[in-house]
Amino acid sequence: MWQEQGNLTNAFGDLTFGSSWQDTPDCSENSLVSQLQTTLDLQQQLDIFSMSAGRALTLNGLTLKTALGEFQATGSKAGEYQHKTSLSLDQQVLAELSYESQYPFTPLVQQQLLILESEWLFSLRNALVVSRLQQMALKDPLTTLGNRRFFDDSFAKAVQLAKRHQSPFALLLLDLDNFKQVNDIEGHSIGDDVLLKVADCMRETLRVTDSLFRFGGDEFAVLLTDTDAEHAERVAERLLSAIKSESFLVKLGVGCSIGLARLSHEQQPRDLFHLADEALYQAKSSGKGKVRHSQVSRANLTDKLTHPMRVAS
Ligand SMILES: Nc1nc2c(ncn2[C@@H]2O[C@H](COP(=O)(O)OP(=O)(O)OP(=O)(O)O)[C@@H](O)[C@H]2O)c(=O)[nH]1
């Protein structure tokens, strides 16, 4: 793939790795070090690195595995040959790199890649620190689901995208039933275990980690992008029954209620949120343990809403 992206050479021996620049990293304006220093974004750094690595050997793909997740260089595909290396700095493993190519990774190529990798280490460490801080700021510390701030941002973007592409989109708001009694009777730490169990149920049922959120307390949200009405209903029912049948939750008498609203194209994020919240209110007030769909029009929205609205419209 990389040889298609401009004036790159296409493999073996095109670059000579002389001892003069092996000793001191090249920090000139166009050097790999300088290019990597222009961004703290892991994906962008990987793409920059892959361009340089593609000069040592034509690559089909490059994957970076970090504690924060896995990243693939843009356009990556499988290759016949693989080569894996571990990127460490100050005895700390930062990441694992997996190269794919249709050519073998000869000792010379491996040596060339090793030199390039060494030029990435400081920038990579900085990018990892920044990503970790960003993730912490956007995650609920107990369940590690997205927090309310992350929801607000993701929700507004998802609605915008769905409208632009005219694709179906739905929002689920979920509130636990009878959770307070767990805290009151069993204690706060068992209450925390309940919240963790619910987050696990959500992950297992939905498998879209980025679109799952905990607002705080016993309130959760799910963004269902590219999901039509029928599928959104099925997802909500599946989630409800997963939580209702989870043995730890059953033992403690905890269930959940879900409000579901689908985006129609004249709506703003704020409208959609209010509709899901209204549906949740209906689910609660009609006996709990149910999924309710939004049936109300915008004009019918009242001050019965259970969540204060903070989503930017
Ligand atoms: N363990 C634990 N409890 C929390 C946390 N955040 C909020 N809570 C508790 O969550 C409970 C939420 O109250 P409600 O939603 O009224 O409780 P509920 O029994 O589920 O009420 P219904 O929705 O009417 O069934 C309160 O007891 C809060 O103290 C937390 O991080 N950990």
From TrEMBL:
Organism superkingdom: Bacteria
The organism of origin for this protein: Alishewanella longhuensis
Entries under PANTHER family matching the protein: DIGUANYLATE CYCLASE DGCM-RELATED (PTHR45138:SF9), REGULATORY COMPONENTS OF SENSORY TRANSDUCTION SYSTEM (PTHR45138)
Protein name as annotated: diguanylate cyclase
Regions that span the bilayer: none
Positions of the GGDEF domain: 167-296
Organismal lineage: Bacteria, Pseudomonadati, Pseudomonadota, Gammaproteobacteria, Alteromonadales
CDD domains cross-referenced by the UniProt entry: GGDEF
Positions of region (Disordered): 286-313
Catalytic activity annotation: 2 GTP = 3',3'-c-di-GMP + 2 diphosphate
InterPro entries: Diguanylate_Cyclase, GGDEF_dom, Nucleotide_cyclase, Rev_trsase/Diguanyl_cyclase
Pfam families referenced in this protein's UniProt entry, alphabetically: GGDEF (PF00990)
PROSITE patterns, alphabetized: GGDEF
Enzyme Commission designation: 2.7.7.65
EC main group: transferase
SMART domains (alphabetical): GGDEF
Gene3D superfamilies per record: 3.30.70.270
